[in-house]
Amino acid sequence: MTGQQVGYIRVSSAQQNTDRQLADIKLDKTFEDKVSAKDTSRPQLQACLNHLREGDTLHVHSIDRLARNLFDLQQIVTDLAGQGVCIHFHKENMAFSGAANPMQELMLQMLGAFAQFERALIKERQKEGIEQCWSDLGSDDDTDNLHIFGFQWRDTTPDALAFERLMQEAVQVIDGWIAGQF
Q1: Which fold has domain 5-111?
Q2: Catalytic residue numbers?
Q3: Stronger pLDDT, 90 or 162, i.e. the higher one
Q4: How far is CA 2 from CA 34, 56, 57, 58, 105, in A?
Q5: Distance CA 153, CA 162 (A)
Q6: pLDDT by residue (tens digit) across 103-118?
């Protein structure tokens, strides 16, 4: 019995495009998330996992699209393979169907560890960028060159900083509106 060809597509934010993932694969059903892969509590991932049955094949563009946590990745692959579902990672050209292959297991663990490491680096860079931005806002030197959201800012009085925070919130609301979140 041949099962369904199911696709799972993920990007980290609503502004990102999913068109390049699995574009050339004929799929019976596709699940798409536009959220971080920091954990498995993603609505479409959970719907996908609940949908899959024995004999189905789950197509994923790359390992880091499914999980950026090694434990979560191994848990998902082990559970699905145990249910008779084949998992195919296209970028890595790897498929897991429950048959033991030590080399493939090693590659999955290594690539999963790199995905987890990459997420940690991204978080670290974001934190450094935010700290630098706040540092720039609070400094008295070089405020003539302070640029935030495309505006040149020269006034660092409390009222001016409050206005800047209001502008940041407005940009977030507009981004959410454009992405269809509101």
Answers
A1: Rossmann fold (3.40.50)
A2: 12
A3: 90
A4: 30, 7, 9, 13, 25
A5: 13
A6: 888 888 888 888 888 8
Residue 161: its H or E element: helix 158-178
N-term to C-term CA, the chain: 44
Q: Are 108 and 94 a contacting pair, CB within 8 Å?
A: yes
Place of tokens 């597509």: 9
Look-up: residue for tokens 């892969």? Answer: 37
Strand blocks (E) in the chain: 5-11, 29-34, 57-60, 86-89, 94-96, 146-148, 151-153
**For 76-87, what is the mean pLDDT?**
94
d(CA 41, CA 44): 9
Residue 54 and residue 89: Cα distance in Å, rounded? 18
- Residue 55 scores a pLDDT above 90: yes
Per-residue tokens: 79: 């559970």
How far are the Cα atoms of 24, 37, 59, 110 from residue 86, in angstroms, in the given order?
Answer: 18, 21, 9, 20
For residue 27, the one-letter residue type is: L
Q: What six digits make up the tokens of 57?
A: 């094949």
DSSP string, 15-45: TS--TTTTTTS--SEEEEEES--SSS--HHH
- DSSP symbol at 4: -
Helix (H, G, I), strand (E, B) or coil at 174: helix
